[in-house]
Amino acid sequence: MDLNFTFHSSDHLRYENGIHVSGPHGGAGRVVKIEPNPNENNTYLVTIFNQDGNHPLWQNNVQMAPKKMIVFESNLNLIRLRGHGNDPMGFPFSGYGITIHLNGGKIENCVLHMHDRNVDIKYIR
Prior knowledge:
Strand content: over 45%
Distance between the termini: 19 Å
Radius of gyration: 14 Å
Order of helices and strands: EEEEEEEEEE
């Protein structure tokens, strides 16, 4: 699968320590964007946008700023990426990951992993 796409999610589910704690929210739309990193081969940038409008303070719809990731597992049913490197302030991306679940070569859902908090956000169609 070409890792250069946007996945439009109609809603999401939140899991903490593997337990479903919230969602669906009745239409909390998000967009998961995965694109090749133009500055480093074999890495990708993962960004999440809010479809509900701009944040009142920072005046954009970025829900999660771009995180640099690498593919560490790939098969017919899923692609897993994990954080790689650091942001410009030196904070590591290793606390993040994403799993893309596939069905017949098409994206079924995406799960954002925040490893340092034991939180998973499942973005659904």
